[in-house]
Amino acid sequence: MANRIGVYDSGLGGLTVVSKLREYLPDCSITYFADTARLPYGDKTPEEINVYAWQIISFLQSQQADLIVVACNTSSALALDNMRRIFQIPLVGVISFGVRAAVRVSKSGKIGLIATTATVNSKAYEREAADQSDSVIYSQPCPLLVPLVEAGRTGTKESLDALKAYVTPLVSQRIDTLILGCTHYPFLVPELESFLPKGIQIIDPAEETALEVQRQIGDCPGPRVDYYFCSGNPEEFRNRAKGLGYELEVVKAVDMDQLYPRSSFEG
């Protein structure tokens, strides 16, 4: 029986997955790592994303994680398959579960996707959709959204204008379902709902991912003890999390390049 779940993301976005894990696995301990010194991931090369994944998974495994959630769509798209070949620890991504939920609720089979540029370019959602159904994915890269969320500029005219510019082309395709292809995007749902036509359902992969973790590990015996780490400024990360409704008592800094030199990566 597992007791500790590792979770990682480029920054704040993975906390939306942590929230869902809390709902379904309230007694499980969580070790969370935010790669804030190197975000956003959406403009990084596949080679860089794979090195980051190897470093972070190595760290979370050293922290006694029994299972690791890759709570980052870019890392799930570009590194997950390779990491599964390198590591024996169970790794759960977010893409297949987001597609599963979208396919289940879509009536027309026209599904929109907003995601980072790297995730869109990977075509991972399209491949997953082809494996699960004959649905069509209409993808839109959204390079401004993660920086806006990380800077605490949700609920502003700037974020609303960016969302409208990104989502309007998808709406013109007559989609009936919209996948949030980045764990940062749930923070923008109130703005999305303010202009999205009625009848378009928003899919947050976090819930499906949490349910999959519950299915894999069952309940945890407790007691629950959570740890939070980041590669950037811990106090800055803690304050930004607080601004989004997450109270983190302690956040510690970790230098991944010092712990796991890039030259040691053989993936």
State the helix count. Answer: 13
Largest sheet: 6 strands, parallel
Q: Please state the second-level CATH architecture of the largest domain.
A: 3-Layer(aba) Sandwich
> What characteristic shape results from the CA principal axes?
globular
Structural class: alpha/beta
CATH fold name of the largest domain? Rossmann fold
Q: Termini separation (Å)? A: 30 Å
Number of strands: 10
- Assembly classification: single chain
- Return residue spans where pLDDT drops below 50 for at least 5 consecutive residues: none
Share of helix among residues?
40-55%
User: Strand content of the residues, in percent?
Assistant: 15-25%
What number is the mean pLDDT? 96
The whole-angstrom Rg is 18 Å
What order do the strands of the largest sheet run in, or round the barrel if closed?
A: 4-3-1-2-9-10
Query: What is the chain-wise order of helices and strands?
Result: EHEHEHHEHEHHEHHEHEHEHEH
